[in-house]
């Protein structure tokens, strides 16, 4: 059998290893959440990026897989438009669609791809990578399910 490396040994995928006891993780003794606030001011007139600075520390590490962003959003009609009979609501995959792009830097080095197509990419990834059970449970936080439910209702004439 050909191996990727000459010193590589045979192994079995963990999904087929049905009868062995899984190992116990002992490297992380505890965890907690640390809150970081944006360093720039947020306003409707200001089109500046929302930037967070996470200082380096030797006593903990940052697990990006468990990073969360808390967002409060108010949706309403435009201020200069007449508010009579205006239907206003979020778009599909709303929490991804409010960002034009996301850039992640480590030590001033860009480590994520950046372009203005982030909302489309996130929506397509959600459609392709998650089943209906996920879309009915934890993905409802992106407001995708709410839009589908509203679209299925008959519209008044």
TrEMBL record:
Protein name: Uncharacterized protein
Lineage start: Eukaryota, Metazoa, Ecdysozoa, Arthropoda, Hexapoda
